[in-house]
Specification:
- It contains twelve helices and three strands.
- It is mostly helical.
- The chain folds into three domains: 158 residues, no CATH class; 140 residues, no CATH class; 34 residues, no CATH class.
- Strands 1-2-3 form a three-stranded antiparallel sheet, with helices on one face.
- Helix 3 packs across helix 6 and helix 8 packs antiparallel against helix 9.
- The longest helix has 35 residues.
- It is elongated.
- The N terminus is likely disordered.
């Protein structure tokens, strides 16, 4: 049971005995103090009031715009990240942490600037929301709380639509790349295809690479998945960096393959078959296909970068690596003893 002495200690640090720290107060007691509850509720109400128009706008975009339909899953996955890393949650809450107020003031300043300039307003306001939530975590739970929650808070950035100028430029570039690359592949495999702007002409068929076919939706969704995978996988930072760097080319390649297959099906089976079977259904297939490419990429990384093989004994290498025969050439390495240790050079 919480006693007045515990409350007094949490609310008034001066009441602590000499040599005792606020950080020694358990989190279960800290969150019951009137000041902590008042601060948490006040921040929640203020954030909800200020950002409710932005959140409603985001929901409309998720519902009506295919490029941002993944937005419904972003808050849920952010919550999962917080649960997944729950072991990093602090056992004590040494609050208030003054640096949290600095984060909150910075976020509030960004919110005001976005409203006054009207440039990339929704995205800048979304970024300011992430900064304010980071400040709230820091204020109410200290630096350990922020280190625990930062992956979840950073992932929330995928909720917000890109600025129009960025979205328009990126969509146009993706359309151009998809059209030219698809035309080149079709010509390479023997089809008389040529490009007119964002239209691919193939015999009597006219295959338009419209905005919906630019691959922007695929790119944004797959980029969010790649970031989530990089956060969750237990691998070296180099592996995670490779996964993130490959997300964009994998998404672009997947969209090009979809367009090429659609063009071939148009030519072989006719326009009705192309529209009914592949043009729409391929969009659903491309995400599993892209994830499969990323899985193959991780397997290739495992094959290229052998972790701690020099430290392993001959028996450990045989036991753990026989599933990858390419590793077995290390077993007969002349510089290693049978137990895996390095041979001494003879003088």
């Amino acid at each position: 049971m919480l006693s007045w002495e515990n409350v007094k200690v949490c609310v008034f640090p001066s009441a602590l005995p000499r040599g005792f720290s606020v950080s020694a107060v358990p989190a279960s007691q800290t969150i019951r103090t009137p000041s902590w509850i008042a601060a948490a509720v006040g921040l929640l109400v203020a954030v909800g009031f200020l950002y409710s128009p932005l959140l409603l706008y985001c929901v409309k975009q998720w519902w009506s715009t295919p490029e941002y339909s993944h937005g419904f899953l972003v808050p849920a996955f952010a919550g999962y990240l917080a649960w997944h890393f729950r072991k990093k949650a602090p056992k004590v809450l040494p609050w208030p942490e003054p640096w949290g107020l600095a984060f909150i003031l910075l976020g509030a300043g960004l919110f005001v600037v976005a409203g006054l300039t009207n440039w990339a307003q929704e995205w800048v306001k979304g970024f300011s929301l992430v900064v304010i939530l980071s400040g709230a975590a820091l204020l109410l739970g200290g630096w350990r709380s922020l280190r625990w929650l930062w992956p979840s808070l950073a992932f929330l950035l995928f909720m917000f639509p890109l600025p129009y100028i960025v979205e328009h430029w990126l969509g146009w570039q993706l359309q151009k790349i998809a059209t030219l690359a698809s035309t080149f592949i079709l010509q390479t495999v023997g089809y008389p295809a040529y490009a007119e702007g964002n239209v691919i002409r193939l015999h009597e068929h006219r295959l338009e690479v419209a905005n919906a076919c630019s691959g922007l939706s695929m790119l944004l969704t797959f980029l969010a998945l790649a970031v989530g995978m990089a956060i969750l996988i237990k691998r070296p930072w180099l592996d995670r960096g490779i996964v993130l760097a490959s997300a964009i080319p994998i998404a672009v390649i997947s969209n090009i393959i979809r367009i090429v297959c659609t063009g071939i099906l148009y030519d072989v089976g006719g326009e009705k078959l192309g529209e009914a079977v592949f043009h729409d259904f391929a969009g659903w297939l491309m995400m599993p296909f892209a994830l499969g490419l990323m899985w193959l990429e991780l397997k290739l990384i495992d094959w290229l970068f052998v972790a701690d093989l020099a430290k392993a004994s001959r028996e450990e290498v045989i036991k753990d690596k026989t599933e990858n025969p390419a590793f077995l050439f290390m077993l007969n390495n002349p510089v290693l003893n049978p137990d895996g240790s390095k041979k001494q050079k003879s003088s």
